[in-house]
Write a structure and sequence with these properties.
The protein is of the alpha/beta class and about 350 residues long. The chain has two domains: about 5-160 and about 330-360, Quinone Oxidoreductase, Chain A, domain 1 (Alpha-Beta Complex); about 165-305, NAD(P)-binding Rossmann-like Domain (Rossmann fold). About 25% of the residues lie in helices and about 25% in strands. The strands form three sheets. Strands 3, 5, 6, 9, 10, 17 and 18 form a seven-stranded mixed sheet that branches. α4 crosses α5 (about 190-200). The protein is globular. The two termini are about 20 Å apart. The structure holds adenosine-5-diphosphoribose (APR) and zinc ion (ZN) (2 copies). One zinc ion binds next to loops. One of its GO terms (biological process) is formaldehyde catabolic process. One of its GO terms (molecular function) is zinc ion binding. This is S-(Hydroxymethyl)mycothiol dehydrogenase.
């Protein structure tokens, strides 16, 4: 039996979001219905609402979520009713060239639920990132559910579904940060702060946080930054070099997504160092670099997509580390809010005080 529950809908370009009754079908083959317990408010949800991602309104927003599997469809073996799970954007196929080569994070054939959730008048909803979890219940592909230790708070667990995983993964998976490394992180929002926490977890000796907002730097320090640079009044490239004995950092993580900060990252790395781009640029952004500077420095210029994560490997591991007191994931939850407060949470995003507002249900 399809069920009616409450969900947060973005009805049209730039229109305020509102809570409406949505219809969640029974799970079909390979699908699961999840009773959502918590879902973080991410910039990507705001971009959906603004029409910056696609025009497929109405959207069912929310994608950084954790909850309990309520029911599963035919052939589902990954999870069972009662399992506590974190949702991920895409279930990997296990069959394509990327999956078979052991790099499922580049899977060509990721999938979401086939059936559609709808409004009560039958209008089909587009779930944000194939999830749609600002709702009491949501329908996903079973492979989008990753079982984790239920001892963790759902508000904390859900954040691994997107921005926090992107940052931790940029450091650990893409950047390959290891014990004794020097790391610089440019941009200390949720993603940059997670890269700092990830670098700390990986044993980096020096973690240099760079931001133009002093308040961000205080928080970065609390998450493990050993040095901070306010790039509003200091040249960050000079400062990073000075803090690393004149060499530059082994790994520089760009978590803003702008040409000027990418340029800073490029020049702030050590010879043969690694630059990781995790900030998302807009389509018109371009960067010109002397090719000789690329040639002359060696190393690696990488981008990190969803932290190059493998949910089945990374989600349970990071939650276990958190439960052991070794990864302060709770620091990313600034406030908890109700379903009908998402619009207000979007407004607070611009203030700079909120790392993550998390809707709890
Ligand atoms: N130099 C340094 N820091 C900057 C600069 C700059 N020129 N411009 C902005 N910042 C800082 C902001 O002060 C803020 O602390 O970058 C941070 C960006 O943080 P958020 O807006 O909270 O964004 P976040 O969620 O961390 O995502 C960062 O990664 O996944 C992508 O789409 C996401 O592009 C975005 C980036
Ligand atoms: Zn695949
Ligand atoms: Zn997100």
């Amino acid at each position: 039996m399809a069920q009616e529950v409450r969900g947060v809908i973005a009805p049209g370009k730039d229109a305020p979001v509102r809570v409406e009754t949505i219809v969640v079908p029974d799970p079909g083959p390979g699908e699961a219905v999840v009773r959502v317990q918590a879902c973080g408010v991410c910039h990507t949800d705001l971009h959906y609402k603004q029409g910056g991602i696609t025009d497929d309104f109405p959207f069912l927003l929310g994608h950084e979520a954790a909850g309990v599997v309520e029911s599963v469809g035919e052939g589902v073996t990954e999870v069972a009713p009662g399992d506590f799970v974190v949702l991920n954007w895409r279930a990997v196929c296990g069959q394509c060239r990327a999956c078979l080569r052991g790099r499922p994070w580049y899977c060509f054939d990721t999938h979401n639920a086939k059936q559609k959730m709808t409004l009560t008048d039958g209008t089909e909803l587009s779930p944000a990132l194939g999830i749609g979890a600002f709702a009491e219940k949501t329908l996903v592909a079973a492979g989008q559910c990753t079982k984790v230790d239920p001892a963790v708070s759902p508000a904390v667990a859900g954040l691994l579904g997107c921005g926090v995983m992107a940052g931790i993964g940029a450091a650990i998976n893409t950047g390959g940060v290891g014990r004794g490394d020097s790391v610089a992180v440019i941009g200390c929002g949720g993603v940059g702060d997670a890269a700092i926490a990830g670098s700390n977890l990986a044993g980096a000796a020096k973690i240099i946080a760079v931001d133009i907002d002093g308040r961000k730097l205080d928080r970065a320090r609390a998450l493990g930054a050993t040095h901070t640079v306010n790039s509003k009044d200091t040249d960050p490239v000079e400062a990073i070099r000075e803090l690393t004995g004149g060499f530059g950092a082994d790994v520089v993580i760009e978590a803003v997504g702008r040409p000027e900060t990418y340029r800073q990252a490029f020049y702030a790395r050590d010879l043969a160092g690694t630059v990781v781009l995790v900030g998302v640029p807009t389509p018109e952004m371009k960067l010109e670099l002397p090719l000789l500077d690329v040639f002359g420095r060696g190393g690696a210029l990488k981008s990190s997509w969803y932290g190059d994560c493998l949910p089945s490997r990374d989600f349970p591991m990071l939650i276990d580390l958190h439960l052991q007191g070794r990864l302060p994931l709770d620091a990313f939850v600034t406030e908890t809010v109700q379903l009908d407060e998402v619009e207000k949470a979007f407004e607070r995003m611009h203030g700079g005080d909120v790392l993550r507002s998390v809707v709890v249900l």
